[in-house]
Amino acid sequence: MLDRADAPALLLIAPTGGGKTLAGFLPTLAELEDGQHVGIHTLYVSPLKALAADIKRNLRTPVDDMGLPIRIEDRTGDTSATQKKRQRADPPHILLTTPESLALLTSYEDAPRMFKGLQRVIVDEIHALQESKRGDQLMLALGRLQRLAPGLRRVGLSATVEDPAMIAKSLACHPDPCEILHADPGPAPDISMLVTTEMPPWSGGGAAYAIPAVLEQVRQHKTTLIFHNTRAQAEIFFHNLWLSNTDDLPIGIHHGSLSRDQREKVEGAMVRGDLRAIVCTGSLDLGIDWGDVDLVIQIGAPKNVKRLIQRIGRANHRYNAPSKALLVPANRFEVIECIAALEAALAGDLDGDPPGPGPRDVLCQHILITACAGPFSADDLYSEIRTVGAFADLTRAQFDECLEFCATGGYALRAYDKWKRLKEINGMWHLRDPRASRNIRMNIGTIQDTDTLKVRYKGSFKSLGEIEEGFAASLTPGDTFLIGGKIVRYESLREMTVEVSRNASKKPKIATFMGTKFATSTQLQARILRMFETGDFRALPDHTRDWLHLQQEISKLPEADRILIESFPHNGQAHTVFYGFAGRNAMQTLGLLLTQRMEELALNPLGFVATDYATMIWGLDPVTDPAPLIQPDALRDGFETWLQGNAVMKKTFRTAATIAGLIERNLPQARKSGRQATFSSDILYETLVKYDPDHLMLDITRDEALSGLVDLGRIEEMLARTNGRFDHVTRDRVTPLAAPLLLEVGRVPIKGEGRELLIERETQALMEASGLNKIAPPASKWRVGW
Amino acid sequence: MNAHIFTLCDTPLHALPEGALWAPQTRTLTVSDLHLGKSDRIARRRGIMLPPYETRATLDKLDLLLDTYAPSQVVCLGDSFDDLDAADSLDEVEKMQLARQQAGRDWIWIEGNHDPGPVELGGRHLQDLRHGPLTYRHIAQAEARGEISGHYHPKCGLPRGGTRPAFLIDGARVIMPAFGAFTGGLRATHPTLRGLMSPGATAVLTGKKAMPVPLAATR
């Protein structure tokens, strides 16, 4: 590191826990040794607040030991207002922060003064930022910093990834080169599937069956991390784990929906070595140093080999010994997925997709942030933005369109002449109303949190955590649910806080939490289909092998070059399953496309649910001939009209419009003060589609949806692979392979004729039950001729 | 017809799925809380530039109803404009459209709490309107009978999630949903609305078809 201290950009690739973070700081410590530097010398940016706090702790020790005159502080959403104010007036030598807090810092008028002497920036866990808009926002902020401090050197620290050159390109100030350093990858991991006497269930994601075996592993190891793919699953597992934890082994839970207090308590206990295990989610994915973890258990199929490898790296953080990891499939299909992931991990077959061009909604936010800091010239801003790798190919026309959007809304039919947000005066762009900067700052960030409500005990001020507003709305007083491993009883909703009381009920509802669901990678899916094709099930445990044989007996196994379609009745509704193996997002899109076709064919679809490997649709009428549904050309033709009206587009629009500053984030403090103007983003979307179909926001929404939630690429991959070939199997009850789908969460209702019919039936039934229908006059009586 | 037909003080009324109320005997079409010019007001007050098309969207929706029912009288039940400045913000196309809609019929602006009443746009301005046993006014009064009002933008939760604007109807009154394109709503479960309506009241959901449901059963 010290040899390369002067490189303008440097990427260090090292396996998790290779001590790379401290290595990144070495040149900083050397340069600050003489105590001459005034103001910020090094900015450290990490994706997690907790990581910034952790690094502060770990950096403090060597700095104090060497008696260096260096001030180190962190600044995140958790930092107090007083502290933040002081940091702007008198910045420390080393500031540890997150992309959002940095974006906020660059929005202040005093940013040029604050960053004038900046020498180095260290981006930790850059591979994690790379995959999201947070990374784009960060790189735009670095472009700004480079302008304020032209000598700025950039260092990126990354875990093992499939394409280091790609990350290097995004890190460097375009078109500068970026050197890549590879650290010793260390010994190969020791990874296997957890052997249990109990069989995994047919369906579900809880993996409750494995609890005795997991507890036994916890007993045998010093410290175990138990990773889950979703927060809800982590909660259920933690709850069940404690029901069986007869030895009272100290086990904690950690995920992003828990209150800060609770998370800090668990983090503290972990650092002190007080805990034998932590049940956790992606919030512990990244390189926080938790001490002597000697086992990582992954509950549920890992979906993506790269993430699996990074999680495994959390074991034996400090020793040059192989990391030990166990995979625990939650159900039988996941047994197959786990075996495929194991094989891929051992073969070092990492997966990933190349990133697209820089997202323009993030660019719009950046333009607004720039305007908050002071007047700017469009030419200068354009050239600054093009130094950011992801935006290097941005055309001037695209930039101007984003600027126009920020200034006037960019509407074709009707303009806000009087109330523009930005105004150009003598070639410089200004905020029309400087007070608008407060709003812009409050909406900084690219993380989309679903609307959440705080949960607390009645009469207490301490927050237990957060639940989604939609889940809260579904509760009636007396309902019980799980949060932070506790079962609580819903009492009331007060001032946007959910009040609960303690409860010892055995069967709580499960709170839904936001949290990303990852699609299984193309590479893993291909491995699974290959296994089906060869019929080589030797690597599978007996129960799973039996299940697949049963499926072969009752129906058949899916094949790579044709789509298996199964139809059966269930609960009085017709069900049809399409095994497309294209990953969750693409299967979701397929569900939307297919239900649209079914709506056209009057099959009255009511809803669908998608998993990584299949889409199941239910409706009032059975599918007898799937051929017209899955013809590639018919699917592609329907795509354009479909794309405009569907829920994924509306959801994507909401995200993009929020990031770009068209709608405000639903912030609790703003809601409480009543200063929030809330709008149904769906209605805004529909209005734009109708009156201004070429509007920038619709263009962005389309781009985003195609590469993101719609995942057109993988639908095309599936269509090319199967090319209209299919097998249609009709049975009188659910087939073995379809069974897990019946319990899958994330059902999407179709708002079509079928649903209208059902609502009508239900409202009629309610009217009849209440007797109100007898009071109302018969409809025919008043049918007057107008 | 997809309307819900009922009587209020022996007067037949149709709750239309679009959220308007049709009185066939007097050929009166009533719409409430149009909130025209809302996006302009938000841009002015908060610097956020929503698609400025809610006025068009609302007027276009009204056009369809005027074509279908050819009412001799239109009652706008208050909060027709987001505020007085919002009335000024209408562009020429929108003003023309409104003038065309007013031509040949009695057009009544009931005064709301947002808009004391825009005077340049034609039509009569009234505090309230009486038609036999019926009274049209903006905000419901607790003791009134035969009252048709708006103001609250009632909406109801659906049996399987989501909400829809809804009429609230009982023997004494009708509270109408908002007709404006960018308008939020107040849950019919809110104590204020529950307090105004009798226990046996009906909620009529808007949508493709007006669907009645007991108010007590809504969420």
CATH class group of chain B: Alpha Beta
Work out the largest interface and the residue count of each chain. Answer: A-B, 56 and 47 residues
Task: Please indicate the percent range of residues of chain A in DSSP E strands (runs of 2 or more).
Answer: 15-25%
What global shape of chain B is seen?
globular
Distance between the termini of chain B: 27 Å
| Oligomerization status of the protein chains | heterodimer
Under the CATH scheme, the architecture of chain B is 4-Layer Sandwich
Helix proportion of chain A: 40-55%
Low-confidence stretches of chain B: none
Number of domains of chain A: 4
If you compute it from the alpha carbons, what radius of gyration of chain B comes out, rounded to the nearest whole angstrom? Answer: 16 Å
General description of the model:
With 786 residues, chain A is of the alpha/beta class. Chain A folds into 4 domains: 2-182, Rossmann fold (3-Layer(aba) Sandwich), CATH 3.40.50.300; 190-346, 3-Layer(aba) Sandwich (Rossmann fold), CATH 3.40.50.300; 452-502, no CATH class; 567-759, no CATH class. The radius of gyration of chain A is 28 Å and the shape is globular. Helix content of chain B is 21%, strand content 28%. Chain B contains 5 helices and 16 strands. In chain B, a hairpin with a 5-residue loop joins strand 2 (11-15) and strand 3 (21-23).
Short description:
Chain A is an alpha/beta fold. Helix content of chain A is 41%, strand content 16%.
